[in-house]
Design brief:
By secondary structure, this protein is mainly beta. It contains 2 helices and 25 strands.
Length: 364
């Protein structure tokens, strides 16, 4: 990792406010959740893709199925003026949430048809607050002390109220999406400590507490609906060359093992991302980053070494999304693309200092 990228990770830990006290939260959770906010300079931050490409979804056929947008707007520019997103009612399928800079820039929702709506003056930076479902139908964002998830294609609005005893220093954050966009796990944290997790079922809006053993964190949702859990108490200080995950409710485990490098070290947090029946981790060896892909038994099925200058974002339909950040971030453009063993294809290019949330973007 280059020096600027390492410094940016440290800055993210100091400045992020998506936890109630994010500095302490990032320190507390460093060994058990990924720092998937990837930066090649001290300002540009890219959120992870949780499941699908911004313009192609895997939802089953039917009235709720996501449309495939053949040619989304590739070059994204903030509009001089944009209407605020209406509080209720259908707007359109979301493909991107972004802000052009890290502090004072407005935040926009980009729809599949190219329209943009204003979400707020400063709501994306730091990452972790806003989420789009993998199919782009559901938009989640903090509202007061709670969290609101609304149907961009319909009229439903579901709100999670803070639990009893929640204070001003407490907040919800999106943790993981199911690949079919029917389940969202959110974490409730206070003063840097995660107090509880809840699962929101969609489109019904039914919410329930996720009862987990102490110290375990949900890192993804399998197609069966089972959360995949990581128990941080099993691991000491990095480096780590393997990690064991557990299927919630069954006790079955799987172990992800690196090959030529490590899964975490003093500069890189552990990354675990789940997309359908595939589990992804990042392997670090010197300056080389490799994406490792496993099945649900822990068998490695693919390795994707990233070209120099590309930084990992997350799994998408047909490959793995990466970002290339320009040397001159103030004047250049960040380029998001999908890489696979057969080549690459572009997603979006955005302003060089932008913070971006793609569909499926959450902590895992």
């Amino acid at each position: 990792m280059n020096r600027a990228l390492g410094e940016a990770f440290q800055q993210l830990g100091r400045d992020a406010r998506d936890y109630a006290d994010a500095g302490r939260a990032l320190g507390t959770l460093r060994t058990r959740r990924t720092r998937r906010a990837l930066v090649a300079g001290s300002a540009a931050v890219i959120m992870a893709v949780g499941g699908l490409a911004a313009y192609q979804a895997r939802s089953p056929a039917g009235p709720d199925a996501a449309v495939t947008v053949a040619a989304p707007p590739h070059t994204v520019q903030p509009p001089a003026q944009a209407p605020a997103l209406p509080a209720t009612g259908p707007a359109g399928r979301g493909v991107l949430v972004y802000t052009a800079c890290q502090s004072q820039c407005p935040t926009f929702l980009l729809l599949a048809d190219g329209r943009q709506f204003l979400l707020g003056a400063r709501t994306v930076s730091p990452p972790g607050n806003i989420t789009l479902s993998p199919d782009g139908r559901w938009l989640g964002q903090p509202v007061g002390g709670g969290y609101e998830v609304r149907d961009l294609l319909g009229v439903a609005v579901h709100r999670l109220e803070p639990p009893a005893g929640g204070g001003a220093d407490s907040a919800y954050s999106p943790w993981a999406w199911s690949a079919d966009s029917r389940r969202l796990i959110v974490g409730y944290h206070a003063s840097g400590d995660v107090r509880s997790y809840r699962t929101l079922e969609l489109p019904s809006g039914r919410a329930r507490e996720l009862d987990l053993p102490s110290g375990q964190e949900p890192v993804g949702l399998l197609p069966s609906g089972e959360p995949l859990l990581l128990d941080a108490r099993r691991y000491g200080r990095p480096p780590l060359d393997r990690v064991t995950l557990e299927h919630a409710g069954t006790g079955r485990t799987l172990t992800l093992t690196s090959g030529a490098g490590v899964l975490s070290d003093t500069d890189h947090g552990l990354s675990v991302q789940v997309s359908g029946e595939r589990i992804f981790t990042l392997e670090y060896s010197g300056d080389r980053i490799t994406v490792l892909e496993f099945d649900v038994t822990g068998r490695q099925v693919a390795r994707l070494p990233l070209p120099a200058g590309r930084f990992p974002v997350g799994p998408v339909d047909g490959g793995f999304a990466v970002v290339q950040v320009p040397q001159d971030q103030a004047r250049g453009r960040q380029e998001l693309e999908v890489l696979s063993l057969s080549g690459g294809r572009p997603l979006f290019d955005v302003p060089g200092l932008a913070a971006v949330v793609l569909p499926g973007g959450a902590r895992h």
